[in-house]
């Protein structure tokens, strides 16, 4: 490991909460400056206040909005590192999952994530240098009850991530996929279905913390120039 991210700029999507927010803290802790984005401006402003405006710059907006995604890609075009992390989840049995929820998960987790990531990969390729880190999930390789649509979106995102690596590595861009199991964040707050609540209640392991996942982000970002951690899977102990 080269040790420090001093002098590096990282774009972090989904920085207003959970894993993204913890990753901002960890990247700053390793010496990076961060361009933080998410829809909730107040949360992003709090990050800027916490770390200082020289260290964390924020730009609030919805990644599903193509106009905002273009503006963001332009404003953050010099980023050396991108953590593509924004995502949503609604767990429910398939028969009780609305098409609107299905569409929303595919739109945010696959299409919006891919669009901004591709734009950043193109900027990095033009400079022949950069590192894309994509937050998928253990759900990218498993399909489980109550989470089928989410699993499908993460399978698609993982395929796109591997495709980005295949096509962009010759242009000097590294691509890493981080695939955590359950992490203790608010992402499941949008899943009130009784079957989901019951499944969460009988779970026999402790979820990972966002800071534990953020350590993997920094590990990947600090890898030597000729070394690409392609896939990092993280599971809470006892969950496999
Ligand atoms: N928690 C887990 O168990 C777990 C496990 C494996 C992988 N993951 C993945 O890790 C990533 C982060 O999840 P988390 O658990 O940290 O969730 P979280 O606490 O709910 O945070 C999600 C982040 O995504 C942002 N976001 C969502 N939709 C957006 C949109 N349309 N435009 C811009 N930003 C948007 C949210 O910001 P705003 O609300 O401010 O827009 C928020 O900052 C997700 O991709 C998730 O699938 C989570």
Mean pLDDT: 97
CATH architecture: 3-Layer(aba) Sandwich
Provide a count of the helices. Answer: 7
How many β-strand runs?
7
**What kind of oligomer do you see?**
single chain
Number of domains: 1
Silhouette: globular
Q: Which ligands are bound?
A: NADP nicotinamide-adenine-dinucleotide phosphate
Q: How is this structure best summarized?
A:
The protein has 240 residues and is an alpha/beta fold. 43% of the residues lie in helices and 16% in strands.
If you had to describe this structure to a student in words, what would you say it looks like?
The structure is a single chain. With 240 residues, the chain is an alpha/beta fold. It is built from seven helices and seven strands, in the order βαβαβαβαβαβααβ. It has a single domain (9-233), classed as NAD(P)-binding Rossmann-like Domain (Rossmann fold, 3-Layer(aba) Sandwich). It is globular, with a radius of gyration of 17 Å. The mean pLDDT is 97. Helix 5 links the parallel strand 5 (130-135) and strand 6 (173-180). The chain has a seven-stranded parallel beta sheet, sandwiched between helices. 40% of the residues are buried. Residues 14-20, 38-40, 43, 62-64, 85-89, 108, 112, 135, 137, 180, 182-183, 185-187 line the site of NADP nicotinamide-adenine-dinucleotide phosphate.
């Amino acid at each position: 490991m080269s040790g420090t991210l001093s002098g590096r700029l990282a774009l972090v999507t989904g920085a207003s909460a959970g894993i993204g927010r913890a990753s901002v803290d960890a990247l700053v802790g390793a010496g990076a400056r961060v361009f933080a984005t998410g829809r909730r401006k107040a949360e992003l402003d709090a990050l800027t206040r916490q770390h200082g405006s020289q260290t964390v710059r924020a730009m609030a907006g919805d990644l599903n909005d193509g106009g905002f995604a273009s503006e963001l890609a332009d404003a953050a075009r010099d980023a050396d590192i991108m953590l593509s992390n924004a995502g949503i989840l609604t767990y429910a049995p398939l028969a009780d999952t609305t098409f609107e929820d299905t569409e929303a998960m595919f739109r945010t987790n696959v299409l919006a994530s891919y669009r901004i990531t591709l734009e950043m990969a193109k900027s990095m390729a033009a400079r022949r240098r950069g590192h894309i880190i994509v937050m998928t999930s253990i759900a990218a390789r498993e399909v489980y009850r109550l989470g089928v649509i989410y699993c499908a979106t993460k399978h698609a995102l993982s395929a796109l991530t591997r495709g980005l690596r295949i096509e962009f590595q010759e242009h000097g861009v590294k691509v890493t996929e981080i695939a955590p199991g359950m992490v203790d964040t608010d992402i499941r707050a949008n899943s009130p279905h009784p079957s989901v609540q019951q499944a969460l209640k009988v779970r026999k392991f402790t979820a990972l913390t966002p800071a534990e996942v953020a350590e993997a982000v920094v590990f990947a970002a600090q890898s030597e120039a000729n070394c690409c951690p392609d896939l990092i899977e993280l599971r809470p102990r006892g969950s496999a």
